[in-house]
Amino acid sequence: MGSRISKPPLWVMIVGGWALFGLFTATQSYVTRTYLGKVPWRPVFALSMVEAGIWACLTPAILWVTRRFSPARVGWARALPVHVAVGLALSLAEVAMLVIFTPHMGYTRQGRVGQFFNFLPTHLQSNLLIYLVICGVREAVESYRRYRERELRASQLEATLAQTRYQVLQMQLQPHFLFNALNTVSSLMYKDVRAADRVLNRLAAFLRLTIEKADTQEVSLATEFEFTDRYLEIEQVRFGDRVRVEKETAPEALSARVPVLILQPLVENAIRHGLVWRARGGTIWMRARREGERLLVEVEDDGEPPPEIKEGVGLRNTRSRLAAMYGASQTFFAGPGDRGGFRVTMEIPYRAAEAV
Questions:
Q1: 3-state helix, strand, coil in the chain (%, to 5)
Q2: Running DSSP on this structure, what letter comes out for residue 199?
Q3: Interatomic CA distance for residues 330 and 217, integer angstroms
Q4: C-beta separation of 181 from 172 below 8 A
Q5: Residue 43, exposed/middle/buried by CB under 10 A (0-12, 13-18, 19+)?
Q6: CA distance to 15, 169, 190, per residue, from 130 (Å)
Q7: 3-state secondary structure 85-130
Q8: Phi then psi for 180, rounded to 5 degrees?
Q9: Order of strands across the sheet that contains 243-249
Q10: Residue 190, φ and ψ in degrees, nearest 5
Q11: 3-class state of residue 192 by DSSP
Q12: What is the CA radius of gyration of the chain?
């Protein structure tokens, strides 16, 4: 594997870029003036290089202002007045600094005030243009960086989702799951054929929905509840009244987008590690509500509290999926609940689904 080429420091790129720009403008200016007769080249090159050096010194300040008052960050209404004021101020400052150096470059000596107003008409417009170009280049680079970050996050998310889809299918198709479901069917065949038929249909619907949503990243919360209900229907046939489910969901939360297959592993975790070990079973609460631009989702049970919190496959997958999809704009909590059992809380940005 070849060694990775390191990126040069910012100051090297600034100085190198302005040095090339100074040589280009000096050459262009000298060639243009030679049509009018013989022109000494040293003053022409000196003026262009000094001007390029001044802009090299001003560029870090321009980059800072552009970063601090980016239209994408603070909006055009706030950014535009700041950039107009800073652009004018730096343009005037560039002319003033240029006047200081002109006596040392072979130009006619005259009062600095007169030289300032002599340079101002020809430099002000070009200086403002240079300022806008620097701001534009910085914004373009920043936009490309954000695009690359989104692209990287999307690729990471795809990889995580691919792994999650496999692990979800693996968890649901584990021998103990199918064995218990089919054992329930076998027992019911001698007692209640219709009930056995319902379990088979629900199992088929559960697996079908798992496959149908395998390539989907987000669904509405209402759709996610439908998927979880299919799973719970099977478990409730097995455990009867020992597993009780209550939903406390605000109506506006049902249309929110959530990652597909995000609740089922949490509900399974509550059943397997909290409720089945109690003779009288317990209750699972699924809550969802909107708080401004945030969606809060909770899964809590009143089962036996775990002696120690150890995240299994389901919790780890849920945490990694939320981090990959929402980054720092999400929070995830897994720990003791208020009812003595276990509680998982997810908070993600609220985004309405196109279709519920």
A1: 65, 15, 20
A2: H
A3: 16
A4: no
A5: middle
A6: 15, 58, 86
A7: HHHHHHHHHHHHHHHHHHHHHCCCCCCHHHHHHHHHHHHHHHHHHH
A8: -65, -40
A9: 243-249, 282-291, 294-301, 342-349, 331-336
A10: -95, -10
A11: coil
A12: 34
pLDDT tens, residue order, the chain (356 aa): 444 556 678 778 888 888 887 787 777 776 766 666 666 667 777 777 888 888 888 888 888 988 888 887 788 888 888 888 988 888 888 888 877 777 666 555 556 666 677 777 777 888 888 888 888 888 888 888 888 888 888 888 777 776 666 556 555 445 556 676 787 788 788 888 888 888 888 888 877 877 776 667 788 999 899 888 888 888 877 777 788 889 999 999 999 999 888 898 888 888 877 776 676 778 899 999 999 999 999 999 888 766 666 677 778 878 888 888 888 899 999 888 887 788 999 999 999 876 44
Domain locations in the chain as residue ranges? 10-150, 213-349
Distance CA 317, CA 325 (A): 12
Contacting residues for 248 by C-beta, under 8 A, at least 6 apart: 285, 286, 287, 288
Q: Measure Cα distances from 45 to 39, 211, 323 in Å.
A: 11, 70, 55
Q: What are 65's two structure tokens?
A: 């202002």
CATH no. for 213-349: 3.30.565.10
Closest Cα to residue 236, out of 227, 228, 244? 244
| Euclidean distance between CA atoms 256 and 288, whole angstroms | 10
Phi/psi for 220 (5° steps) reads: -70, 155
Prediction pTM value: 0.51
Where would I find the H helices in 111-253?
112-172, 175-189, 193-212, 221-239
Q: Identify the residue whose tokens are 């939903």.
A: 247
Residue type, 95: V
Residue type, 69: F
Residues near 56 by beta carbon (within 8 Å), at least 6 away in sequence: 14, 15, 18, 19
